[in-house]
């Protein structure tokens, strides 16, 4: 028996390097799968938008690369500013389209003493329709660029790799890849529908650019094309930033689910598990304090556009009585702004709900004697006390977002809409 025991120990020592090598190769395979299927393609998308360096060298920093990245970022910001200016010149509002009205010009010569010449002027308020939304949009983009490109912790790659390593099996990893690509696909669909609404609004009626009324036709057509490109770029910027927030909250939600599953279904070392939760808290803090502000700025703009569009759609604008909704395009435009504004709240509430479930994980561990029967009782008590003390929430506008608050808000809005409709404030005649 002693010889067999020695032989077994010798074989274990001899097989240990192969087991360790197999484990390392498995980790490498998972990381390569993560990078090839989702991480590298998505990082390239963020680089095109300017949220990450266009050219990067992980080994050493190069002045040429930094110069190219800086020039590219400046060009993107100039394109944004040019879009703001062209929107004002064309009197184009994102909540309803082109806002012109015909005003009698007494300085122009009468034709045949019967018909008077009218001129098209913009009646959209300069401060509230163009300056404030443009400044907020630019601040949101610059803040997101500074946070994502100059943060000490490159959170997205680290978080994505941690989630893939924590997932259980290839099926879970493939499901995670499909889920993440779903966010990217929905973002692309939103931008496509937004482009359709912009083109349809531009095709409806004539467009005059302020200060350039007498320019040749070719210049006007070029300005119209440039206006479409700039507006599309505005949508690409904010849709990418909001989708990045939604994707990271989805990763955090999945990461927390993996940690809970690991705790409930297999024996774990309490200190190691708590260390993972502390890492999760650090990543959640980064999302709440660093990523959320830019998302809140864009959400503020989107909610304002959606609300203004709804009020205009039901003819509650005291001045804009001449701009007429364009069939289903105006309705689609308002729906798109609402969807983009509500997406971060839905994802934040899902993450907060998972954090609430985590608080009950310690109590559930105590009710599973077969899984943790070899774990010392004081270790289980420490997990119970630790989870019960957790107060984790996803925050927007520095307010914890939970599902119950969202349901209460939607119920309140629904009651208000129903009551106003019953009191004949909303009519669709």
TrEMBL record:
Keyword Transmembrane part of the UniProt annotation: yes
Top-rank taxon, per record: Eukaryota
Residues that span the membrane, as ranges: 67-86, 180-205, 291-314, 326-346, 405-427
Keywords, alphabetical: Membrane, Transmembrane, Transmembrane helix
Keyword field contains Transmembrane: yes
Protein name: Gustatory receptor
Species in which this protein is naturally found: Tribolium castaneum
